[in-house]
Amino acid sequence: MASLPAHQTKHIPVLSHPFGSHTFSLTQLNNGVSNGTALWLGGQCLSMYLADVHNKFKSKFQSPPRAIELGSGIGLTALALHSLDWDVVATDLPGVVNSVLSSNIRNNPLPHVAGTIQIRTFDWTIPPDQWSWNNDVAIAPAPPADATSGGDTLGPPFDLIFSADTVYSVSLIDPLLRTCHHLSTLSAAASPSSRMPTVLLCIERRDPMLVDRLLAEAKDKWNFNVERIPRKHVVRAVEKRQTAWDKSEWEDVEIWKLKLSI
User: Fold this and answer.
1) Global model pTM greater than 0.70
2) What SUPFAM superfamilies does UniProt report for this protein, alphabetically (predicted)?
3) CATH number for the domain running over 6-260
4) Where are the domains positioned within the chain?
């Protein structure tokens, strides 16, 4: 069963979105309040790419493998990776978590899948020394010191850090890259192999100057190795699952792999 590209479904309040053997029911809002409360094309393309290659990012030291998504939106990509037997931390700003993300994760249980999926609020503009990993509601801003956690919480090390359709303003570049950098160093420090996780950023090149600045700062300021996933790999992943999509619908979507230099 196929789905439509996201820009053709903004008017639909509840999406039925197939992924592998699952079909996710995803509520979205198109009220102009937040970019994060509707489905975007990058999330669709990244989920299809992950279906092809997710085993490449697994660590032999951690089972199930563990990932964190920055800017999960309505939850498609987080649910997709979780359905592939990953532990996933789905994160976004409180307004997005409370309006769509939390309910979408809760309403799409995957009982026969290994691993777990958790939701946290995460504001990238909060400095890393103010993050919290022992609360099941928020990473940043950290909850009050007397707040209690409802159970075991997922934290570093992460095998994969991923984000789609989250850079649409220059003001977001530095917070996003700082967050990816710190998550990478935390993960390497907590890993038995000191292995740096892979960072995947899926970007729709609407503003070439913005994208070029993001990639340049990732390399020059934050010391990431930056490599574009070959377009043929993305094309193969999409066309395998969406035979009716015209390439013009998603030709501006790019996936970039970042890995922090040691």
Assistant:
1) yes
2) S-adenosyl-L-methionine-dependent methyltransferases (SSF53335)
3) 3.40.50.150
4) 6-260
